[in-house]
Every structure is written in structure tokens, then in C-alpha cells.
Amino acid sequence: MGVMTSFIDATLITADNALRTLFAPHRAARPTPAVSAERQAEAAQMTESERRLSGALMRVNHVGEICAQALYTGQALAARLGPGRPEERERTARHLEAAGQDETDHLAWCQQRLDELGDRRSLLAPLWYAGALTIGVAAGLAGRGISLGFVVETERQVEAHLDGHLDRLPARDHPSQAIVAQMKADEIRHARDAQQAGGVELPPPVKWAMRAAAKVMTTVAHRI
Fold first, then answer.
1. Longest distance between any two alpha carbons in the chain, whole Å
2. Is 152 exposed, middle or buried (CB count within 10 Å of its CB: 0-12, 13-18, 19+)?
3. What is the pTM of this model?
4. Does residue 98 have a pLDDT over 80?
5. CA distance 47 to 154
6. Which of 186, 208, 198, 188 is nearest to 33 (CA)?
7. For residue 35, how far is the Cα from the chain centroid?
8. Could you tell me which residue, 90 or 209, shows the higher pLDDT?
9. What's the confidence (pLDDT) of residue 6?
10. What are the structural domains of the chain?
11. Which end of the chain is more exposed for a tag (fewer CB within 10 A), N or C?
């Protein structure tokens, strides 16, 4: 693909990402964070209630990664089709898509852990994706600085959310803890990279609205 991306190309990229995220098997570029054989054996002794709790928390994390994919895809689409110099627009889009590659790893890891726990992904995944994609497009159309600032704030909130899950996961669920810890490290890096690339601080009302939307998603996804 050259520097210039046509409307048709950008739309096809967006549609392809949506279909892959929602319906295709997720394939990680990196291996799943590993734990020792001893800790694997300990995790195998989890009670049914512990498994249900871990499954609910990992389902929420899986939904969060679906939303992250949609946000990055929407922002990349807006970057390619919005105002500004073509080279800068394409550079912003590529930056967002590179971060999205880590989210693909997270999706695969969360799905693998859900399978191991005998649990399922959220039944409302297409709805979460559509909502996050819309928000991503709106953030992207607001300009490069705000779009990258949106990434910074999103990743900071996700970091706090993952911290909470590390506290709530059963003590014996070492595999889930390892996955969540690596996800947290990646999100911290994404926030740092977006800030260094020119992300601006978002107004407090925007941050509050983002927290409220995330609260609705996590509450519903915990059960459905």
C-alpha cells in the first residue's frame, strides 16, 4: 500500500478488521504468557466457583480487547479520510494499527483462557464492536492530537481496570494472572507511545464519559 489510501481501500481495511475480530479465530503473534508446571497444577485445582469468577473476568477482558480493536480501527479510518497532509494521516493510521496488533494477541490469549476455563465470550460482542468503532471514528475526526490523547486516556483507564482484575482473580488462577499482567504492561506502553507521538490531555468531562461507558460495558459483559 502506498502513502495515499483511497476511500475504498480504507473502508475495506475497516470491514476486514471487523470481520476478523468478531468471527475469525484469533491468532497471536506472541506466545501466551506462561506459568510454571507447578502453578499450572495449582490452577487445575480451582473450584467451580473460582472458575466461574475467572471466566466472567476474562470475558470482560475479551470484550475490552474487542472494543480496543474497534477503537483503533475507527481512529485509523478517520485518520486516513480526515483533513491534513496525506503522509501524516497515513503515519497516524499506521501507528494506531501497530498498537492494534498487540490487542490481537490479547484477544487470542483471552479466548484461549476462556476455552480452558470452559466459559464463553460475550454474546453482545457485535454490539460492543459497533459502539466502540463509532466512538473511534469520532475521536479520529477530532484531529491527531485528540485522537492520540484518546488512546492515552483509554489505556490509562484499561490499566486501572486490569489492576482491579489482578486483585479479584482467584489466587490459584496463575494462567489468567499472567495474561492480565502482560496485557497491563502492553497498555502502559501504548499510552506512553501515544503521548510521545503527540497525544493531548482530554477535558475532564470526556474522561468521565469514557469511564461511564466502560462501566456499562464491564457490568453487562460480566454476565452476558
1. 57
2. buried
3. 0.86
4. no
5. 34
6. 186
7. 23
8. 209
9. 66
10. 47-221 (1.20.1260.10)
11. N
Residue with cell 479510518: 77
Task: Return the residue matching grid coordinates 453482545.
Answer: 124
Residue whose C-alpha cell is 492530537? 145
Once rounded to an integer, what is the mean pLDDT over residues 117-133? 89
Closest CA to 139 of 65, 213, 189: 213
| Confidence at 175, pLDDT banded by 50, 70, 90 | very high
- Residue 166: predicted pLDDT: 95
Q: Is 87 annotated as a binding residue?
A: no
Any known ligand binding at 88?
A: no
- Identify the residue with better confidence: 100 or 71: 71
On the 0-12 / 13-18 / 19+ scale of CB atoms within 10 A, 193 is middle
Residue 62: its pLDDT value, please? 93
Say whether 38 counts as a known binding-site residue: no
| 62 assigned to a ligand binding site | no
Distance between CA atoms of residues 151 and 78, nearest Å: 14
Position 113: which residue type?
R
182, 33 Cβ separation under 8 angstroms: yes
Cell numbers describing residue 11: 473502508
